[in-house]
Design a protein that fits this description.
Length: about 450
């Protein structure tokens, strides 16, 4: 059996729970219940290497070239079973008795990731914080790989009942629950013929499907069925229903244009999709350089955003020159700030430009979105004291950033009421935007992401 983790190696994504669960399993049994493929980079990479580097159960493949990784994947697939044994009637003969391993691949291309997904059976996605959607989960399902995780927030539609991990405020309990779920799933499915997968080098069998039968196949097919509902065509139709008739030019505005994370990647993706439909699309934001001080610059950007006159003047010039029919705001609380939003709102009032805003994360509802682990933790009417109480640092810059964030959020909530349409990626956010931002239901639209 093969498990895969392909998110950021960060606490909010639950990677520490994955490392802890695997460590607990190895400590108790001396072995792993399956191969574990880890794809990604992040702050907790060090924790993984501290726990497993030098262990015979761990192999670092991150320095391999793309073609070497593909060879490794084919090698792992061929080790499982003899090619001649892969048919509906005769179970394949196991060839590899060397035991399972953790394979760390680091940050690789989308093509490499999909190749790893092709030989994976379950995705580990124990995201600790409240995801507003779950694009990585959707990507996993689209490859027929069911997701194991906490069923909350934006992940609710993507995790089947038997793969849910019970969430607790206690990390030790979460680690134990994840470890138990991995072992439970491994014991249930690895003993079934449902996991028979022909080697990818075999020309007689297509990848995955023809040689699979049983319960895992049902889960895999259900995963694909769910993913099939999140198409680009469906998304385009919803967007076109929102846009005024005669729309030709769309300006997308977001804090950063550099591909720092999911928000920035999504903005680039929808720009491509809209251009393919014949719209003229431009993107406005800060093209921040990716280097070792990027995190410091982004933290300082939170402070500067409260009085960011530069971006306000820049977007005024951009709107005047581009003459968009629609201005679509995305992330605005990390750098662009209230002055930029006010500029957009003023143009809407004076020039009848249609305006949209998407709430990609909980940045307008909490000072530390990545620490919000349940809907109950979303502050309903946060005070400055509540904001400060969420700080767990002695760094004065952090306190200054939170102080500025508090006043920024108060101002943004008032300005955002002047925006035409408020977009959320998951339905669970609707009551929070309605009650906290104080937007009427008729102005809120659920627009789910697409692959």
């Amino acid at each position: 059996m093969n498990f895969i983790f392909f998110w950021r190696l960060a606490r909010e994504k639950g990677f520490d729970l994955v490392v802890g669960a695997l460590s607990e399993i190895v400590e108790k049994t001396g072995e792993l219940p399956g191969n574990i493929f880890i794809f990604g980079e992040g702050d907790l990479k060090r924790e993984l290497f501290q726990s497993f580097a030098g262990n015979i159960l761990f192999e670092d493949c991150s320095r391999l070239r793309g073609e070497e990784i593909l060879d490794k994947i084919e090698f792992l697939s061929n080790l499982e079973y003899e090619e001649i044994g892969c048919n509906e009637e005769i179970p394949p003969t196991p060839l590899y008795q060397g035991g399972n391993k953790i394979y760390f691949f680091g940050w690789q291309s989308q093509a490499i990731l999909r190749s790893i997904l092709e030989i994976s059976h379950f995705s580990l996605m124990p995201s600790r914080f409240l995801e507003t959607f779950g694009l990585a989960a959707l990507e996993s399902l689209s490859e027929g790989v069911p997701v194991i995780g906490f069923q909350k927030g934006g992940l609710i539609p993507f995790i089947s009942k038997e793969l849910i991990i019970s969430f607790s405020e206690n990390d030790n309990e979460n680690t134990k629950a994840l470890a138990n779920k991995i072992v439970e799933i491994s014991e249930k499915y690895s003993s079934l013929e449902s996991l028979v997968t022909p080697p990818i080098s075999s020309l007689d069998f297509p990848p995955r499907v023809r040689g699979i039968k049983g319960e895992w196949k049902i889960l895999s097919h259900e995963s694909r069925r769910i993913a099939d509902g999140y198409t680009e065509g469906r998304w385009i139709r919803q967007v076109q229903d929102m846009l005024p008739s005669g729309t030709k030019k769309i300006l997308l505005a977001s804090d950063y244009t550099t591909l720092l994370g999911g928000i920035e990647t999504h903005v680039q993706t929808i720009a491509r999709a809209l251009r393919q439909q014949g719209y003229e699309v431009e993107i406005f934001g800060w093209d921040i350089t990716k280097w070792r001080w990027t995190k410091v610059l982004r933290l300082m950007g939170l402070v500067y955003s409260l009085c960011n006159i530069t971006s306000a003047l820049a977007i005024r010039k951009k709107i005047r020159e581009f003459q968009p029919d629609v201005v679509w705001l995305h992330s605005v609380s990390r750098f662009l700030g209230p002055l930029t939003v006010r500029e957009v709102a003023d143009w809407r009032k004076n020039k009848e430009i249609s305006t949209l805003v998407t709430y990609h994360d909980l940045g307008l509802l909490s000072p530390f979105p990545s620490r919000v682990e349940s809907e109950e933790m979303i502050p309903k009417n946060p005070s400055l004291g509540a904001f400060f109480s969420s700080v767990h640092s002695g760094n004065p810059i952090v306190y200054l950033a939170v102080f500025c964030k508090y006043f920024q959020v108060l101002i943004l909530r008032k300005l955002l009421k002047r925006i035409n349409i408020h977009i959320v990626p998951s339905a669970f956010l609707v009551p929070h935007i309605r009650d906290i931002i104080e937007v009427p239901d008729e102005k809120i639209v659920t627009l789910e992401h697409f692959l």
